[in-house]
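In keeping with the milestone schedule agreed at the kick-off meeting, the structural modelling team has produced records for the first pair of proteins. Each record is given below as a sequence line and a structure-token line. The laboratory manager (R.T.) confirmed that both were archived under the project's standard naming scheme.
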Amino acid sequence: TLNIKEKEELMDEIKLEIDHIISKMELKEANIDSYVGEQLIKSRNNLNSIRIIMIIMNIVLMILLLAYLPKTLTKPLKELEKSAFDISKGNLEKKIVSNSNDEIGRLSKSFEDMRNKVRLSKEHLEHQVNEKTKEINKKLQSEEKTSKAMIYLLDKSKRAKEELSHKNEELHAQSEELHAVNDHLLHAQHE
């Protein structure tokens, strides 16, 4: 069994050992706090680096979009504008092609439908005009033949009238001569 002094010494040793353990634990806790602090700082730095990289990537993406987007919008619009100008000038043969399904693509397809309908209407109208022109030309040819025949008949009639007028004058002259001869005979008979 232990005496009091031994007990006190043992207690002091235990206290020293506990103090030593506590100081080691405090040191480890300080090391852990320092390590965690360092890790937090590294994490913040990494997070800030990631944020900066994301901001740079967003800026690059926006620049690319701003460079690409106008081309994807303006090119189809300019092509559609040129096609509309061609149509307004009467060029209905050039097809309007669109490969997109967005609003501009649907507008282009509507323009193509309109161009095709106008082209078909124009072809139909031209066909009708050609048929009417042929019909009119046939009538004109027929009327021209009729006119030529009428002119021929009028000319023949005029010549016949002139001949009749000439014969009438001859008959009148002969009739006058006969009257004169008759008057002369009558006068001679009375004498």
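The second protein of the pair:
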Amino acid sequence: GYHALADEYRAVLADPGISPRFKAYALKLPTEKYFMGLLASYDPLKIFEACCAVMQRLATGLKPDFLRVYHENVVMGSYRYTAELAGKRALKNQCLVYLSQSGDLEFDALAFAQFRSSDNMTDTDAALRSLSVFGGSHYETALKEYVQRYGRESLAMDKWLTVQAVARRAETLNQVKTLLQHSAYDPKVPN
């Protein structure tokens, strides 16, 4: 059950022999689509709710572990690409995803700080996705600042649209209807 899964996650987070990139991959839960493919009949809402519940439980139960690993994998200095640094960013951002799922507002502030200080799309996108969990003023400010930074870049704006369209929030459907009218939305592009 949950305790066995949490123990495995904790072991992965703590194991210095596992690369950051592999840890980031190993910490991702299977998607709802994956579970639907395993079952002959299913209720998509129940699968969605179960996936959310598992993620929130892991986020809450492993909060100190995720926070420690997040801080251990912050890459200092200007952006540069190496496989090692890309792995550290991936792991740090996977931890941020879990921390945001805990619902603890200190992680809203952490995600906003990452958004503001980011000099690369990987960190910016992860921070924006994490902020979408909380909603509120940091999320709204980040959405506006994102458009100011990347408004002329179609690929970046596709990410901006996607973050809002897949947000697990009660108002998402209405937000999608509004986004259909936004100048960045192009029905010919698979946003």
